[in-house]
Amino acid sequence: MTRRDFLDQVGKVGGAVAVWGAMESLGLLGKPLMASAKEFTSPKKSDLAMANKNGKKIIILGAGIAGMAAAYELGKAGYDCKILEARERTGGRNWTVRKGTAESEINGVKQIAKFDKGLYFNAGPARIPQHHVTIDYCRELGVELEVFCNANEFSYYYQENSGPLSSQKIRKGTVKADTRGYISELLAKVSDKTALDRPLSKEDIERLTAYLKGEGDLSSDYTYKGSTRRGYKELPGAGLNPGTIDSPLALTELLQSGMMNSISGDYDFNQQPMLFQPVGGMDQIPKALESKLSGKITFGAEIQEIRQSADGVRIVYKTNKNGKTSEITGDYCICTIPLPVLKNIPADFTPQMKNAIKNINYATTGKIGLQFKNRFWEKDDRILGGITTTNMDISQIWYPSNDFLSQKGVLVGYYNFGQNAVDYGNLSLSQRQARAISQGAKIHPQYAQEFETSFSLAWHKIKYSEGGWASYSASDRTNYYPILNEPQGRIHLAGEHLSYLTGWMAGAFESARIAVSRIHEEVLKESKVTSKVG
Amino acid sequence: MTRRDFLDQVGKVGGAVAVWGAMESLGLLGKPLMASAKEFTSPKKSDLAMANKNGKKIIILGAGIAGMAAAYELGKAGYDCKILEARERTGGRNWTVRKGTAESEINGVKQIAKFDKGLYFNAGPARIPQHHVTIDYCRELGVELEVFCNANEFSYYYQENSGPLSSQKIRKGTVKADTRGYISELLAKVSDKTALDRPLSKEDIERLTAYLKGEGDLSSDYTYKGSTRRGYKELPGAGLNPGTIDSPLALTELLQSGMMNSISGDYDFNQQPMLFQPVGGMDQIPKALESKLSGKITFGAEIQEIRQSADGVRIVYKTNKNGKTSEITGDYCICTIPLPVLKNIPADFTPQMKNAIKNINYATTGKIGLQFKNRFWEKDDRILGGITTTNMDISQIWYPSNDFLSQKGVLVGYYNFGQNAVDYGNLSLSQRQARAISQGAKIHPQYAQEFETSFSLAWHKIKYSEGGWASYSASDRTNYYPILNEPQGRIHLAGEHLSYLTGWMAGAFESARIAVSRIHEEVLKESKVTSKVG
């Protein structure tokens, strides 16, 4: 019997007040308010019916993932949700750039994507780990998934000014095989293993040595002499062709190149395989949410004021089209506006809250999509999906994880952060394109001949976002984050910035669940008060 | 200018004999005959036209990958190919089991797959590395690819009778993070690194230590104390929920478990990411080839004799349907029959060839497909694709890499080799099913409730295959393999067994390319002789 079933049974026998009491004794309503989204269950119509409630009117600011997820969940219980969205589209930073996509950056010129029909890149979030709640929403909403290729051993490392391997593209699998080989050899050859820092029995030392031999593909004398794992000089094949392998890179070359330091990036919990993307673009997720929210979203509504009283909330907004100011009232507000935007909107928040909002930094980050006539990376380099990593300021090249073997494709020609992103963001559109192509061409000379068209963006210069994601320092988490998480009267914040999954859609989804649960609790709580009074 | 363009030009000016001379001087016709498929170019009609040839009649034995690829390539130049296929379907060991698939093993009972429509598993080859020629054929034939999930850090290791971690399912990412942590710590803490077996400068030692800190996610004192990479006890999320991590497994526990020894399996050159599978089943490849060979394949034709003279080949076959014996003649024969089958067919081969054929062992291997009502591994375990690895005799559990988030699915409940496969193969169908379920249920208790239907097979008991793939010892490669690669008069062998890519479709494709090139060379060579005589 689930908790939900139990409460339903209690409701049938004892009515709303009994449900309230049961929920309280189950610890569902006590202070502190729900702080984790892990135990979330969607509000149900029967909750409100049992409490003699018809729900309330909830004003939601922003039709990104958090705002729409909140409206979707509240809608399951019959709440009357209205979403105000400044843009003419849903999704916020979940944004797929395809033919006709138009955007002007702050102080920038208008850019219209000229990609061929069917080609696109995900300008914002682009990968979903299998353990994120985002997967559950894809299942529930019928969003079809395909694998996102993150770690591909055939993609390259390419480093400049880094010793003897400078300006050479080397397959990631080669660097990994050689690194594992040397590390295993070094440890396997430590003659007195009992002197190692961990206590090891004789049997453990034998097991460790056997493991190292396999891990590094070492020869019988525990020397690393290369391995088929690093790839072949001549691939093996049919007939009298067993293949040949090259000597390994020298350990000092590897160490000087710094390539080996990038390997552990593949181990990050949010970047380990498997990762996924929706078929057809990341915006299939907001589109699926939007399809559940027909008539509830007002587009082009730029928020001017966020007001509240003891009885309700009042939101003043300007309609982009005619510049007219309107207002809307409701019982509660969920505000998902990114903090760099929110800090400039007059709002009935405490001074502490206002101070917290203005003190959170957002990541500077940018991407460029480059359309090419042919998928030379698949045909010539035999790289199907994955990411090439470099210390040039493009930082990364992403190969598409979809429509393999088709003719044309869009690469992400840079995906960078911090100062690199600021620098790229300061360039004109044509300068960004030229710089991305000239750097990328060092790895893929085919760029020059195959390039067709580009679309670039700097998130810190995109209106209504003004940054990639909340970038908390440890002290921000201590000083400001708890304040942001406390409801301000009838106003609850939500979004990736209200999570420890910043930059991930899962943070937005989970924070929406918390806001939904808290408002729902409040509404049920009022019913208890009413029952006692009535 | 390509070699092909050059020869075309030569042909226009000087005719077939000039082409021949040019080819000879380019080393295209000299002894030894083409031994590598890497330099393959498809035969063209213009080759034969220039040589005043109309091609020849080629009899191909077997409509698997090798046989059909040979017919497809020869067909491009206008050769008249006839394929004799013992089964009523193409593909050979490339075999996708779906609703209605029927098979009787040798001395076995008839089995008909009862999977739901749309559900299937690949009984034979099931993954394609991005560097295999198979990818090129998929591109050329329009076979759509999707990612095959090989290494998934959320799938499990599960070992029995192996120390304190026995009978615990542990995420692969956890084992990997802890292993990398300890190995990095052990090496980072070797106090006198100049005593290590490789010469290391002071700067290299600093770089090595920095690398180890990152590789192992070590603390500032270079101790491994666990890492978020191993996964969380409580996942991080929205609100005041940063997540918590468990202590690492003990090094001695890991060493005793043997789990860490399985990690390097993910590094194998043919199993590194990215890997692919055709959308809709591996048999989309033979189906695509078949669609190019309309009218050229005779099904149900069991080969009885393989004969040749100086002038041509003669193949005697029995039609399965009526048991009638027929024969067909041609100029050349390409024989792709697996050696355990071929050794029992009377053939005009040299005694050395016959001896080689009968001396090659084939792998014993088996699989079972288990259909479940719900994809509990995706919903409960959050495993989307990938492989669980165990020392139980099921060896592996494969989670489907397609149709993620849909309701039902087919797991590969065992995929084993050697004695495990022999043991499973000796069981009745219901015993195999019961054993696979009881072992798998130790990892996934949901098996009991969710199981619906199974289909199992032992390749060494499948008629016309009698094994998984050629399994050469080093001495076999020296003693027998070169003999198998020499054409026997007008008869050329092809198939995965004629390659260093045994067990991979690429071996079959490449060997077909060699047979095609050799026959085409022979035909062009005859034209030279004719020209000189005529």
UniProtKB/TrEMBL annotation, chains A, B:
Give the keywords, sorted.
Answer: Oxidoreductase
Gene Ontology molecular function, alphabetical: L-amino-acid oxidase activity
Pfam families in UniProt: Amino_oxidase (PF01593)
Cofactors required: FAD
Residue positions annotated to bind substrate are 127, 414
Keyword Oxidoreductase carried by entry:
yes
Q: Which GO terms describe its biological process?
A: amino acid catabolic process
Q: List the SUPFAM superfamilies hit by this protein, alphabetically.
A: FAD-linked reductases, C-terminal domain, FAD/NAD(P)-binding domain
Q: Which residues bind FAD?
A: 85-86, 124-127, 496
According to the entry, every stretch annotated as the Amine oxidase domain falls at: 65-519
Secretion signal span: none
* The protein's name in its UniProt record: Amine oxidase
